UniProtKB/TrEMBL annotation:
The reaction(s) this protein catalyses: O-phospho-L-serine + 2-oxoglutarate = 3-phosphooxypyruvate + L-glutamate
Domain Aminotransferase class V: 7-422
GO biological process: L-serine biosynthetic process
Protein name: phosphoserine transaminase
Amino acid sequence: RRAQTLNLGAGPSSLPTSVLVQSAQDIVDYSGTGMGLIELSHRSGTFKTVIETAEANLRKLLDVPEDYAVIFTQGGGTEQFSATALNLLGYHAATNPGYFQESGGRGPPIDYAITGSWSNKACQEATRLGFNAHPVLDARKVPGANGKFGSIPPVSEWNLSDPAQKPAMLYYCDNETVDGVEFPSPGFPVESLPEAYRSTVPLVADCSSNILSRPIDIRAHSIVFFGAQKNVGPPGVTVVILRRSLVEVHPDQGVPHGGPRIPTTLVYKNLVDNGSLYNTPPMFSIHVSGLVFAKLLQEQGGVQGAAERSRLKAQRIYKLLDDSRGFYLPTVKQPNARSRMNVTFRIASTGAAAAAGTAQSTTSAGEAKVESAPAPAFDEALEEAFVKFCKANGIEQVKGHRSVGGIRTSLYNAVSVEETERLARVMEEFMAKTL
Ligand code: PMP
């Protein structure tokens, strides 16, 4: 059945079959030891080799400089929403004694670029923890957005904190999995940040849903993190790449100066100092991720190879949407911010699709009068029929995220160019039979 199935889930999502077959073997008898990988001590030499090899291959794939540490931890991307803020505030307090008192106990601003649901959640978490979270951009509120994510305005239009206030970080999400919004290639426009800001404010990226799909300039960042369950491996492991200078001091040293107390397992310094083995790590997820790294590096042309395939795959599907004359409606209006990983779209009611030109002029005329333009003419029953049609053709998990509805086809690394062509054919067939 697997050979006939095309899994386009947004995560957890498809992984290379060869990796899964190997993993299945390794969970029973790892490398002739007579023991399964998850039955070994995490402090054994055998597992040490597993984690070190995974790290070495990841470093090669992403060109991680020596002065950056790589840690494998748990808690998912969501735990990093708090861990990034907590650690950077702890570091801030330890290295700027007096700052918290002078700021009336509020602490430094933490800048968040909100381009979709996940960066929004990260900002909400910092607020919930009582920190001075400062949205530098809320892409739902820019003119024409009508309260929906779907564009990334240029940095010159963001409301960045004054570097004199020593912001603890600038946080962004490189690819918004739910909303299908991604920073345009080649990646976050670091060079657009004012020099005084760029050279002093730590840049933090959530790359959970697009890591290893294009190169990323690690040096421009202080922290890059990603949950594994999209391009990397099984759920359960989260990778954090961070500048070593951030863990020179223990954040507890910031506590007397107003910094936060941080749960032990979230303290980056503990994880780095112990080579990710402060406590028992998610061994199986690390191993499978390691197999994915090795395969990408040795057989698939590394990140450059993945980037080229991602470009072709996204181009094929977005062209189909754009050429569908209003039948398939891409939800992201800014073409260069359309995610190469998560293609999100609605399906128009057949009447509206036929009159696509008319529908558009109604929308732009309506905008002058009301803040929220008339609801787009999509047809939920037709979207449901599309999901069923995909299923009947062996294509699974294409329903949009429950918070936004519509359709989402995720084209992660494990989805090949040929499989994307298969999706395109099914989409063309569905359109032809419906119209
Ligand atoms: N960030 C992004 C970009 C995500 O896509 C997700 C999950 N899909 C998360 C964070 C949260 O990850 P987790 O469920 O592992 O906590």
